[in-house]
Design a protein that fits this description.
The protein is of the alpha/beta class. The chain is built from nine helices and five strands, in the order βαβαααβαβαααβα. It binds adenosine-5'-diphosphate.
Length: 193
């Protein structure tokens, strides 16, 4: 995937990553933050759900993984987002990507190729009891109790290791995600200052 970010080398490309368990509220916060700064909000989950809705080849394939609460294979994800990032020249909030160490490595190499870097990785920390109640009340197709259990396990096994991966690079900002929408958003703005 060498050079997959090649066209996003605009002058002030701020790159922010949102990390956190399913149901932590990444989607709403990432959208709010990108609206606030007029950056792009790039949610791989939303992109995939759109493909599923339109019954594209990619959507049909991805859905086999999503409905079980498994991750869509890295290659598919990297390929999907590289197409979108072409010509991206404003700030960007990545929501749901990277989600595995391999995705993070791929992103890092591509950024190194063009001398760009990730500015911040925002880790939205939410209590487990809250996560489960949020997920069960959301009503999305993959919010079925059995699928939720697998998504949380997948998060623990494959995504959580990204916290120490980015901690080593000094990029992690831990945000308390348990408060009200307003509270959490203010905490986010503080770390972005
Ligand atoms: P949540 O974080 O609430 O589980 P998302 O909308 O981020 O929801 O993701 C929904 C599903 O889409 C995931 O369970 C997974 O199957 C798939 N998905 C999203 N982003 C990725 C990614 N970067 N890599 C692999 N699969 C992904």
């Amino acid at each position: 995937m060498k050079g997959f970010w090649i066209n996003i080398c605009g002058v002030n490309v701020v790159i922010v990553i949102f990390l956190g368990p399913p149901g932590a509220g990444k989607g709403t916060k990432a959208k709010k933050l990108s609206d606030y700064f007029e950056w792009r909000h790039l949610s791989t989950g939303d992109l995939l759900r759109n493909e599923v809705k339109n019954e594209t080849e990619l959507g049909l394939l991805a859905n086999e993984f999503m409905k079980k609460g498994d991750l869509v294979p890295d290659k598919i994800i990297i390929n999907m987002i590289s197409n979108i990032l072409v010509n991206q020249n404003a700030g960007i909030v990545l929501d749901g990507f990277p989600r595995t160490i391999d995705q993070a490595r791929s992103l890092r190499h591509s950024l190194e190729d063009i001398s760009k870097k990730i500015d911040k990785v925002l880790f939205l920390d939410v209590e487990e009891s809250k996560i489960i109640s949020r997920l069960t009340n959301r009503g999305r197709k993959d919010d079925d109790p059995k699928v939720i259990v697998n998504r949380l396990k997948t998060y623990g096994d494959l995504t959580q290791p990204l916290i120490s991966f980015y901690e080593k690079e000094g990029l992690i900002e831990k945000i308390d995600g348990n408060g009200t929408e307003e509270n959490v958003f203010n905490n986010l703005l503080k770390v972005m200052a």
